[in-house]
Amino acid sequence: MTAIDVRLLEVTKSFGNGILAVDRVSLDVRDGEFFSLLGPSGCGKTTTLRMIGGFEEPTSGRIELQGQDVTWLPPYKRNVNTVFQNYALFPHLSIFENVAFGLRRKKVASDQVRQRVGEMLELVELRGFEQRRPGQISGGQAQRVALARALINRPAVLLLDEPLGALDLKLRKQMQLELKRIQQEVGITFIYVTHDQDEAMTMSDRICVMHGGRYEQLGPPQELYERPQTRFVASFLGISNLMAASSDGVSDGYAVARLRDGTEVRLPRPMVDGSHDLELGVRPEKIRLHPAAGGAETADNLLHGHVRDVSYTGVSTQYLIDLSGGGAMTVYEQNSARADGRLIHRPGEEVAVAWSPDDTFVVRSDAATAA
Q1: Which residues, given as ranges, of the chain have pLDDT below 50?
Q2: Helices (H), the chain
Q3: Residue 185 sits in the same domain as residue 239
């Protein structure tokens, strides 16, 4: 059975101005995993992280670290370290002394300090930077120094509060891979706060999607993307085409639903829990466009419409389709499938929109949450 490093039990945080920042959140973070708290500004993710670190006290609830109740312990008595967005490096100290700072405070022997700082700088690929100052290195290198300083005391859990937010896009992408590599090498539990969906999807073993102080869904990236459970998760993690429908029995092993215009749509039976009113979804890249006269497989879900807009994005082409039964759909087609790079479908063209029943998911309303 996997050990639990961090456990939150009905944790709530209210501020004096009547704001409920975190609302009865309960979750477990497993030993050695890269766990992300993902959501928009004001969703409660940073407040949750600060309570785990001891920088904020919960209004109610319990926080455990490796089985120990740390709810009311100050930060310095918790075996955790934090990396902040601004890195908080000491500008007057060398890179070596910045990384060694925690060991110096613990009065570790000088030879041990040299050895462990060397190991940390090797890990973050900054050997040879020992005598430079923070003002003499790049933002990406400063982020690595902050990471090395936080890891050198070998915390049970490392908390990261949007540490890549100040970096440009290219460097941020590079550092995402570096962070995951470092986390896997050291084997320490990382709890990572971000509002960037791609960042969370790239690095995380599991993601907790937060909204309005609670979490809407928790699971591996693929599960959250392929099977979102709420409208918020479906829309926050990429783009989803959502359709109101009502359940209408079973056919050929699939559940059957009818859209408002009467069109029949099939979906996996486990997606339907017995409720009559449904909201179905399908991701844009799961949809295929065909000439209106035909071309779709008979097993596909099939709608008709015309192309309103076409946008070439390099890797793919994005189509906006106005459906004959009302509403619109976004469709992505990979450009690599067309050797000559031509746009097959033009604005105004009549098309058929098709997708596999297995790619259909069901979401519940925003009012419901998973917490």
Answers
A1: 367-371
A2: 45-53, 95-105, 110-123, 139-151, 169-186, 197-203, 221-226, 231-236
A3: no
